[in-house]
Write a structure and sequence with these properties.
Number of helices: 3
Structural class: alpha+beta
Oligomer: single chain
Strand content: over 45%
């Protein structure tokens, strides 16, 4: 079992060593965020265990990828700094303008098995809501390229 673990780690390291991330864009947006029990919740939809989330419908209009977790009523962001809804609502439910940073990147890695360059699009949203750092990430495979055209090859 130990040798199987070492082989798996070596394969992971070799894949990561050949990965290349190219930042395509960074944009800053301001969105309205409803900080009430209607939009702030502890939920495990899209996660393996419950996390503190804020549902932000306006994300659909400012992002490229779908940031709505299955089972949720709107796109969302999560924080891992608290598990308490009251840490966000703070006894003051209201709608506030929140500044967010949206980063779009291209990820390339060489698939050693197929000898192709796998290309994915990655979108990360980050922002601070009432002192807590919230984030959400989505990635989608967008295709393959010839191995010689892969930036991860360089």
């Amino acid at each position: 079992m130990k040798s199987l673990t070492i082989i798996a780690m070596a394969l992971t390291i070799s894949t990561v060593a050949q990965a290349n991330i190219t930042e395509l864009s960074i944009k800053n947006v301001t969105v309205n965020v409803d900080l009430s029990t209607a939009r702030v919740r502890l939920s495990e939809a899209g996660y393996s265990s419950p996390v503190l989330k804020v549902l932000i419908p306006e994300l659909a209009g400012v992002t490229i990828l779908d940031h709505r977790n299955e089972g949720e009523a709107a796109p969302c962001m999560a924080t891992f700094e608290s598990m308490n809804v009251d840490d966000v609502i703070q006894g003051n439910p209201s709608t506030e303008k929140v500044d967010l940073t949206i980063k779009l990147s291209r990820l390339e890695y060489i698939n050693q098995e197929t000898q192709l360059c796998e290309v994915s699009l990655d979108e990360t949203i980050q922002g601070n809501i009432r002192g807590l750092n919230f984030t959400h990430n989505r990635s989608v495979a967008i295709g393959t390229r010839h191995i010689d055209d892969c930036n991860a090859n360089m």
